[in-house]
């Protein structure tokens, strides 16, 4: 559309957009504010905006007991974390093989996650956080591997069978979750897998597979066929051509799809709620803070909500472009 | 690519979907024909179609169906109208401001839905900000009643998904044919006329896409209702999904819950089949 040029018109546009922005963030800001109040301030009937901030809610949420020298520990943990993140960001500029740098950074992160409960007395919320990481990473790896193969095949194969698979996937995507999840509970009980990460991961892969193959297929369609055909003329088999020529070109599409898979796995509530008993992920653990008689649930819920949102906000800050592009592309292509 | 290679590549994915989507659906029908609680999960007792009859005769099942229909009727048009208007406004902004607005608007859509609902709830706790605003403005106590809880569920639904329609429309606006817009400007079309006669027809296919998907997605609304009502029957705000869930976990009637899930699947077919038909035609044409 051509831009509005009149001054009052432009002011009005910004007023409306600002109002909508406030509407979008008020729940976040209020919850963040509540999470750094003492319980007495947080439960005041008239909202308090002047109070002495405290981290005690986060301490109660994450730690079972307060360590002797919390400042020093927090300092070293944050230092280690920021070093590893910097390593990931600047990997391109380090004169070593890039995979090696990524390997070092990732094993450093895993080591750090292992080290934390050794030096600190962590509460169960930390276990739920680790569960969420395992489930999310596991789902992304399996889902994207299967999805890439299928998405590539669906983009290149012209037979009717391909259309049947695509349309069936679309139908599966639309069906209400409970129609699968209740039978999963039966399968899990029969195989004695209830409460295991494996069951949650494979069922999450299954329910997200339709979305994954549609999205990856749309990215593969954009890659010209000549690319792998010329590689195959050079004597490479189709699988080799796929791995050596197509996948490197596909990285942006894979990252975008992985991002959505991450959100879907990280957000899943109903499926995890039914298939686990104690090995919860964050959404299920957090839902425990609603209702109930314990007054401390008010501020603990706020701290838990903020704690689980921060990783997602960090991820989105890094990948905002892919997110918007993926949302728009998925829609425009149907 | 021939059929053999296609099956080789797509095989793992197809097997996963056959084993974990087709098979469970068949099992849901089979389990729906059994009496099953958490005590006899592995030895369910055959009861034939009794669960299906019981579900169809269950007043609360229909009550939850009606509330789900009301939810769709309120929330889906709001998503489309608000999303479209905000996208038009956002289109007027350029540069850094556009990116900042977009990031803020996306926030409700990307966070964990359960967490978003909890944040919403925090605003209406006895010490919540919006409860206080409500009481100051209307000079009356805010209570959790059937009406207010339902209103909160609608309000949260609008807050949560509007970012999605907004981004879709916003992307659609970027593909407007510039020469057509220019020509209509020369012909003296006003801004509203342009929106009415060029923009809205241009985004018609997007609207259809949003309509179909948002009806199917809001049909299975669960997380927000679960948190905002705590499954309290007092609020009469059960949706089909929460009532099925409640039948399974609280009433421990797993067989009946399976039967209800199957009935829900049949219900969605009204919207799903036209959608599938359209996609089928499109894919065949593209081939």
What structural class is derived from the secondary structure elements of chain B?
mainly alpha
Q: What kind of sheet is the major sheet of chain B?
A: 2 strands, antiparallel
Spell out the CATH superfamily of chain A. MetI-like
- The radius of gyration computed from the alpha-carbon positions of chain B, rounded to a whole number of angstroms, is 23 Å
What is the ordering of alpha helices and beta strands of chain B?
Answer: HEEHHHHHHHHHHHH
Oligomeric state of the chains in view: heterodimer
Query: What helical percentage do the residues of chain A reach?
Result: over 70%
> How confident overall, as mean pLDDT of chain A?
86
What amount of the residues of chain B lies in strands?
A: under 5%
Total domain modules of chain A: 1
Based on the coordinates given, report the CATH architecture of chain B.
Orthogonal Bundle
Distance between the termini of chain A: 24 Å
The structural domain count of chain B equals 1
Structural class of chain A: mainly alpha
CATH fold group of chain B = MetI-like fold
Average pLDDT of chain B works out at 89
Shape of chain A: globular
Strand order of the largest sheet of chain B: 1-2
Number of H- or I-type helical stretches of chain B = 13
Largest interface: A-B, 106 and 112 residues
Structure at a glance:
Chain A has 334 residues and is mostly helical. Chain A is built from 14 helices and no strands.
Tell me what you see in this structure.
Chain A is mainly α. Chain A has helices at residues 7-35, 39-42, 56-62, 70-89, 98-119, 124-156, 160-174, 178-190, 197-221, 226-233, 238-267, 270-275, 282-287, 297-332. Chain A contains 14 helices and no strands. Chain A is globular and about 70 Å long. The model of chain B has no long low-confidence stretch (mean pLDDT 89). With 287 residues, chain B is an all-alpha fold. Chains A and B meet through helix 1, helix 6, helix 7, helix 8 and helix 9 of A and helix 1, helix 3, helix 4, helix 5 and helix 6 of B.
